[in-house]
Amino acid sequence: MGGKVSGRLSFVCGLFGAAVLGIALFFLAMTGTAEQAVASSASASTGNVHVGVASCAGSTCHGRSEPTGKIVRQDEILQWQNASSRTGAHSRAFAALASARGQAIAAKMGIGRATSAGECLGCHADPAYAGKGPLWQVTDGVGCEACHGGAGGGNGWLSTHYAVGQSHATNVSRGLYPLDQPRARAEKCLDCHLGSDRPGQFVSHRIMAAGHPRVSFEVDLFSALQQHHDEDPDYVRRKHRTDNVQLWAVGQASAVGRATSLFASPGLGTDGIFPEIYFFDCHSCHRQIVDGPAGKSNWVANPGRPIPSGMPPFNDENMIMLSAAAKIAAPGMAAAFDADSKAFHAALAKDRPAAVAAARRLSASAGRLADTLGRTAFGRAETFAIIDAIAGGAISPRFTDYEGSAQAVMAVDTLLNALVRQGHVSEDRARDARGAIDRAYKAVGNSNAYRPAEFRAALGQAAASIRALK
Description:
By secondary structure, the protein is mainly alpha-helical. It has helices at residues 7-22, 76-80, 93-97, 100-109, 118-124, 144-148, 168-173, 182-193, 205-209, 219-226, 233-238, 244-263, 317-329, 331-347, 352-373, 380-391, 402-421, 427-443, 452-467; strands spanning 270-271, 274-275.
């Protein structure tokens, strides 16, 4: 993150706030080290008992008031529970259920108290599917093990992760979730920031209709907002330095795979005689309607969606970003992915069986890209090229709707930050581009006032300002 920010920070804070209220309102809430080539409907899990945040909070562990540890900060609990910072969002997830909005959603859904409803606790707390230890508390919200994996039990990683001489690989083999791996991290985050097929982790349009905020996510940006650790030389020796562009690209592929695999699921892709509307572009229906002579059509042709006008399109924000990444980092796979994407959109205009078959093909295509991108190193040239691709003539015409446009702004911001972090662009020079990026953020600052042509112009200016930094 970094740089000044009127439009940018207000947009990100609003989006992150919605996600917190979202990981905070309802949909609320792998042990293997190899990246998986097949798209999944949930992240992998182990049978380890979840021992609770209190088990991590000793002053010799992660509960110090200052970051004075030699190997890790040791004030991670303090950062996690920061009441006023975005880094404390996960710890506030359960409390959001008791808010007026959380209670109102539960009342409209008819599910009883939000603070005890399984539909909410799957993501607003640590679901601890494998079991709970005596120190586990639901009020902790999204605690350590919700992301890092259950630590308890005879074969758990709690005792080995602080033992002298033990490796990260050993801890992973005992159930520590490998968040340092891009695919694994993306799949874990998507469980609640898009949905999974586990109990209490699937978001539906009914939840949205009850008042839940719109769901949007970008794994690298949100990881930066939640980061409780330092990537110092010791961290890099034990694991590796994060390739932020790779993480972004793999996150986009994982999101496409997750959305389409869930859509294809028999019990999740439909609601009554309707498709599950959660998967579709919100603003294709939620638009201002004006009767009389002043009324006009809001529909804009989209070259990536071969569907009739008036038909709600599948939310393709991640498909658009993945298309841009593939054109640069996996050109041999890009055309096939674009063809699978178009075929999926077209199948939605036919019938459910055709759409399910196309969704499964697209999910597999995204899974293969996630696997390939997870093995790809992204340098200076590739990062600049992806930014140009997002704003270029092949991709830009697809920004006809708010969701894809918001994802594009987060992408160019994330990619510029990666250039700075990798030492390819100085922070002083990057600051020259921040104003144009701010203007692009402002163009998506109000979803109800979104105008495609104005956004595309702002995005093009932002990309040009970054291109000038080469």
